[in-house]
Structure formats: C-alpha cells, structure tokens
Request: fold
Amino acid sequence: MNMAQSKNIGLCPDCGEEVRFKKLPYVGQIMTCRRCSAQLEVMRKAPVVLRLAEDAWEEEEEDIDSYESPRSNQRNKRDW
Ligand SMILES: [Zn+2]
Reply:
C-alpha cells in the first residue's frame, strides 16, 4: 500500500536487489548495490530504472585516451 514510497526504489539489474533511495534520485546518480556491490547508474526517475555503471566508466577512459593522443602528435609536429 506504499505506492508513493516505491518511487524511490529501483532494482539492481545484476542481482535483483531492491535499491532504496532516501531522497528522490536524479538521472545519472551513481548508487552502490548493498548486496552485490555493483555500481549502478540511475537511467530514469519515475519509475526508477537502474543499469550497471561499470560499462560507462570504461567508455570514459577510452575517450580520454583518444582525445590526448592527437593533441600530443600536434605538439611534436610543431617542435619539428
Ligand atoms: Zn546487486
């Protein structure tokens, strides 16, 4: 009968555990599943939809690498 409270609960996509938020979550918020310790990212707020955040972190690292390498190449060319 607690329909209002269910807005603050998402399901861990990894183990199915209920992840409760003390306040209304925001999109992009990172939560840690207390059961399997997975990093979860909030995709939607109402209802709360969670996904594993580890994939997004790997993509970010790749972006930083491909962004820095052409920069350092340009610097080398200028020095020559
Ligand atoms: Zn979990």
